[in-house]
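Worked Example 4.2. Read the sequence first, then its structure tokens.
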Amino acid sequence: MSFPKEKRLSRIRKDLEKVEGFLMLDPDADELARFRFRICQDLLKYAQRKNFKDVEMAEFLEIPKADMSRIFNHRIDKFSTDKLIKLYSKINPDYKLKVS
């Protein structure tokens, strides 16, 4: 297999510009950002345990697939904390939020 031609590489680069990808938590993130990140992590872990694909998890949570993708990629800036807690309560109905 030979190295791709420049035309193909240009097309690939252009396509990759549209990809958002997975966001990591900033090491200096405040406690609220860490909390929101953990909710996303827990939603992802739940989907993996249940062998749910994005579409199935979105249907379970009753949200659009695009929103599920954003959550799985930790695009937490797209959602309020209240919305994330509401979604989390669907996978853990006994969850009690304690504020100190």
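Now turn to a second chain, presented in exactly the same format:
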Amino acid sequence: MEENHCMLTRRLRNFTCIGALGLSIWPALATPPAPAPTVKFAPVPVDSIFRPLQAKGSADDALASGRVVPGTYAMAAKAGKHWRIAFLFPHLKDPYWAGCSYGVISEARRLGVAADILPATGYDDLKGQLRQMDAAIAAKYDAIVISPIGMTANNASIAKARAAGIPVFELANDSRSDDLAIKVTTSLRSMGTEATRWVVRDAQQRGLKSINIALLPGPMGAGWVKGEVDGTRIAAQEAQIAVNIIDIRYGDSDRKVQTQLATQMLAKHGAKLDYLIGCTGCAPAAVQPVKDAGLNRKLRVVAYDLTDEIARMIRSGDIYAAADTKGVSQARVAINAAVNLLEGRGKELPHTILIKLGLVDQQNFATYPFDTSIAPEGYKVVLSYDPAKN
């Protein structure tokens, strides 16, 4: 166990943190580094959800209304053709999407397909993502995998791709489009419930009878943000102690924006707060403002999801716990699902594939399977892979 802990320490120390670089990574990626070595991943625990189910619904609506089949998603066989698949990410400003990049490119190499990651510049760049979709349609990709910026804002462009004969898959971020081939995500509501249930358990262990919490969930309108907040409210209502949500502040997951929001929140409510729960870009941004306010011994920061940065902060005690949507596994399953469809494999396709969540804190840190969520040490973001050139 000690050896595993040391290996993870080296891995987290050496990982390239994309969030600190922002858009400055693009020049360095003009000539991308060699892709990560071919790896095999274990079958991923999932819930596959089949029709009939609620029309124009979220992934959580599908979970509530569809036929749910628990199981695992196995690695697909190598493709018989060099299919071209475009991946539309909302940005690459935090390590979560770096992990997704790793999952995509490593599997593209193993499967023998071409993959191009086309990122927008943030959750305020819907127009940019719509342009990327138009470009992918014009380039006649065989499939498109989108991580939509909005729950409904991308629906028309998804329908446009489908009308052009291009199957569109969803990765991580949710939407209410009925024109998707398959959704690959998690129960976004469960991100909120799992993180908040940890908070409640921790509060009970501390002997607290009631707690005040504040949320930094991310950008208003994003599907995962709504899931975080809805899940937190559900867990708060179910709790055996009083859980008071006294502030929610929305904003882009950019570090500067979230640091400002955290500072404002603490200036108004800091003395009252027991816990602060934030998204992958939000929770780390709150750590220094909490310290600056002298609240780090009282106020505990928890994350709705896991990145390498959050893992380091759990190890150091700056963040206490994180739910885990397993971004690397999601990306792997998404590209495998696309290849299986293009190859004509399988009879009945699920409407939605939900990757089952994890949760990490200091109690299980030494044995946690971080490779399902975090790229390997030293990984540098790669935006494309073409088997014809490698």
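Notes for the reader: The CA atoms of residues 83 and 372 lie 25 Å apart. Residues 1-38 have pLDDT under 50 and may be disordered.
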